[in-house]
Specification:
With 144 residues, the chain is mainly α. Helix content is 95%, strand content 0%.
Length: 144
Amino acid sequence: MKIMKWVVMVVFAVMYVSLAVGQDASSTEKKSTGTEVKDAAKTATKDTQKGAKTAAKDTDMAAKKTAHATKDAAKDTEKGSKAVAKDTEKAAKVAGKDTEKAAKTVGKDTEKAADKTGSAVKKGVKGVGHDVKKGTEKTADTLK
């Protein structure tokens, strides 16, 4: 413990001496408060100007990068729109052709069905007419 006390005392002594010497050294270069304020104001002005220039440069670079990215996005959008328009046009042409083919097929099928229906009606009418003729002949034969 005794050694510890001496170490602490030596440390405090060294600190005290360094503070005392430091104050004496600065006392020869002492500036007035007004000069210190002026110097601080000049330094602050210079720092502010540097900061403003740096901010302006950074803003300009960011604006250029944003403009470039916007142009790229616009080009990509234009390309995409053109591709969609072409695909839509192709699809419309294919759909038109398919619709035309389907209409022709339906027309042919309807015509065939009408022919078959007409033929069946014709046969049915002939059959009914034949039966009527037979019935009339039978009636006539019975009456004789």
